[in-house]
Design brief:
Strand order of the largest sheet of chain A: 6-7-8-3-9-10
Order of helices and strands of chain B: HHHHHEHHHHEHHHHHH
Bound molecules: adenosine-5'-diphosphate, magnesium ion
Helix content of chain B: over 70%
Order of helices and strands of chain A: EEEHEEHEHHHEHEHEEHHH
Number of helices of chain B: 15
Radius of gyration of chain A: 19 Å
CATH class of chain B: Mainly Alpha
Largest sheet of chain B: 2 strands, antiparallel
Helix content of chain A: 40-55%
Radius of gyration of chain B: 19 Å
Low-confidence stretches of chain A: none
CATH topology of the largest domain in chain A: Rossmann fold
CATH topology of chain B: ABC transporter involved in vitamin B12 uptake, BtuC
Shape of chain A: globular
Shape of chain B: globular
Mean pLDDT of chain B: 88
Structural class of chain B: mainly alpha
Number of domains of chain A: 2
CATH architecture of the largest domain in chain A: 3-Layer(aba) Sandwich
Number of helices of chain A: 10
Structural class of chain A: alpha/beta
Low-confidence stretches of chain B: 1-9
CATH architecture of chain B: Orthogonal Bundle
Strand content of chain A: 15-25%
Oligomer: heterodimer
CATH superfamily of the largest domain in chain A: P-loop containing nucleotide triphosphate hydrolases
Number of strands of chain B: 2
Chain lengths: ~260, ~325
């Protein structure tokens, strides 16, 4: 490679064991500053576990994740957002008794610029954010009253309130209908255009292919592909992982027949 | 599920505004209690105020932060013994008593809280119970504080006796206002975020241990101040009075009844539960503890979110039953 790539996150040989289970096995990849990286893989392939490692919720059992030269595992979980990393939870975790506005304000109060903000400033920042993610209409409602799409929006808004440089999105489009997925993609592009690097975890191939500049594919905890979206989808290993070995074999045979 | 993690309707981080204003108004009325010149009335209301202050102390950690403590009586006891020891050294001044109690309780909360507040949920509750029992044992065996025989304090003469009432009133008012302003500040949101979802709070930059210790220490100072005023008013402190089971259980029940995680709940709960206790004591001298215990159990089972919740309830019995089910999950 001739150009020096501007890498903000380096995942180096990360392994994560839960008892006998290897949820992640020697996974390495890099994320360029300002990019959108898609992270895909079948259910149980380790995507969420990777989000947990990069956001400092889990300490990897081997290897390391390095953000802007700092090893993430060296920081307690609550300081990782001060490094500039924010994440959403696949299983949403709203503060149920607080309003939508208060939920987001907590992020603005304690996130990267939180120490500099008074409570009032945090609410002012929150109101801007709610407008931009389309939650202003339910700002005063308790988070427990929200619909599924709005709960997903709230997860994103809380993460954005941390003023991140790197935003990890874990299946924020799951359970959304067609138009809602389009809206979500639009929002994520807008966030990215403001300079935030994104790692987007999705089960949905289509959505991820349209938004990602690069895609990393996991299967059973191992990285099986890493490249441009089109390269990755045509990789036999990826097809096998997603559609099963019989399908991959048949395709292989067809290809052989054609040549 | 953690205590206080509410579902459905909410009343705001301090509770309903008009309820709080009413609470302040009742506090205003309580200023006139000494004008009855009746020792029984005076004592009864001083106890209500004392329980309210302790309940506010419990409310910060148990109600707002969602960590149910079974050992907050430790702070009350420390506060009471601070006054007793000061009196022993010849200092009988309620300001000095409260000042020393605040310092000692804050220190104690930090030293003990740092290890035990790393524990999540139930383990914390059990550890706090251990702390309270341990302190009782210590007080029983420490000659310096009179051992099991306790210590006498010099009381103000009858002319100044009502001063203790006003002191307790002031302590309670400060607890009430402090709760109101803390809840609305950044601090209050950190407490509630931890209660509602500790992992989500952490990812938003909140150090759970740090804010749990702060909540416990602030609450501890409230309980300690109540103990510091109680001791000279009572004129005598021993392990049994300082670390009484009632002083541990009543404040919790009061916060639950009035509405935990609100700025009015502890006071309202203290007023109502003390009233009920008085009546029961009069009607059933022997079994009143049994009835009182049964009432507490009923509250916890059927009104786990307190009266404050009923005030905000829309949707009648059906909503109540469905919320009750959701609360138990
Ligand atoms: N905290 C945990 N304890 C035990 N096993 C876990 C834990 N988290 C994830 N796993 C396991 O690790 C594997 C990968 O899970 P996950 O990262 O959630 O997959 P994905 O998000 O790709 O669906 C699964 O087999 C899952 O059961
Ligand atoms: Mg997942």
């Amino acid at each position: 490679m001739t150009e020096a790539r501007d890498v903000c996150l380096r995942v180096e040989n990360v392994g994560m064991r839960f008892g006998g289970l290897r949820a992640l096995d020697d996974v390495s990849f890099e994320v360029e500053r300002g990019t959108i990286l898609g992270l895909i893989g079948p259910n149980g392939s380790g995507k969420t576990t990777m989000m947990n490692v990069v956001s400092g919720v889990y300490k990897p059992t081997s290897g390391r994740a390095v953000f802007e030269g700092k090893r993430i595992a060296d920081f307690p979980t609550h300081e990782v957002c001060h490094l500039g990393i924010a994440r959403t939870f696949q299983v949403v975790k709203p503060f149920a008794s607080l309003t939508v506005r208060e939920n987001v304000a907590v992020g603005a109060m304690y996130g990267r610029f939180g120490a500099k903000r008074s409570g009032k400033d945090a609410f002012a920042r929150t109101d801007e954010l709610l407008e931009s993610v389309g939650l202003a209409r339910v700002a005063g409602r308790p988070a427990s009253d929200l619909t599924i799409p709005d709960r997903k929006r709230l997860e994103v808004a809380k993460a954005l309130a941390l003023d991140p440089e790197l935003l990890l999105l874990d299946e924020v489009m799951a359970g959304l209908n067609h138009t809602e997925v389009d809206e979500a993609l639009h929002l994520l592009r807008a966030v990215n255009e403001r300079g935030v690097t994104l790692i987007v975890v999705e089960h949905l191939m289509k959505a991820i292919m349209s938004i990602s500049k690069r895609v990393v594919v996991l299967a059973e905890g191992k990285k099986i592909a890493d490249g441009l979206p089109l390269e990755v989808t045509s990789s036999p290993a990826v097809i096998e992982a997603y559609l099963g070995s019989r399908f991959a074999k048949r395709q292989q045979q067809e290809r052989e027949r054609q040549t | 599920m953690k205590a206080g993690a509410a579902v459905g309707r909410r009343a705001g981080i301090t509770g309903k505004r008009w309820v709080f204003i009413s609470t302040l108004a009742i506090m205003g009325l309580l200023l006139f209690v000494p004008s009855f010149h009746n020792d029984y009335i005076n004592l009864t209301f001083r106890n209500i105020l004392m329980y309210a202050a302790m309940s506010y102390g419990w409310n910060l950690i148990g109600g707002y932060t969602g960590y149910v403590s079974f050992g907050n009586v430790a702070f009350f006891g420390i506060g009471a013994y601070c006054s007793a020891v000061l009196s022993k050294t010849g200092i009988d001044n309620v300001f000095a008593d409260v000042g020393l109690a605040l310092v000692m309780c804050a220190l104690f909360a930090i030293v003990v809280g740092l290890p035990i507040l790393r524990l999540r949920g139930h383990y914390f509750g059990i550890a706090t119970l251990g702390v309270a029992l341990g302190l009782t044992d210590l007080a029983n065996n420490l000659d310096f504080v009179g051992g099991s025989g306790g210590l006498n304090l010099k009381q103000a003469d009858q002319a100044h006796f009502y001063l203790y009432y006003y002191a307790m009133w002031a302590v309670t008012l400060v607890c009430m206002l402090a709760t109101f302003f803390i809840a609305r500040s950044k601090l209050g949101y950190a407490f509630v975020a931890i209660r509602e979802n500790e992992e989500a709070a952490q990812v938003l930059g909140i150090s759970p241990t740090r804010y749990k210790v702060i909540a416990w220490a602030l609450g501890g100072m409230m309980g300690g101040a109540a103990g510091a005023v109680f001791a000279p008013a009572n004129g005598f402190v021993d392990p049994g009075t300082a670390f009484a089971v009632d002083n541990n259980v009543f404040p919790i029940a009061m916060a639950i009844l009035g509405g935990m995680g609100t700025a009015s709940g502890p006071f309202i709960g203290a007023l109502l539960l003390s009233g009920v206790n008085e009546i029961l004591q009069e009607k059933f001298l022997w079994l009143h503890s049994l009835f009182f215990g049964a009432i507490i159990v009923l509250i916890v089972v059927f009104l786990p979110r307190g009266l404050m919740y009923l005030v905000g309830l829309r949707g009648g019995v059906r909503r109540w039953l469905s919320d009750l089910r959701a609360f138990r999950v």
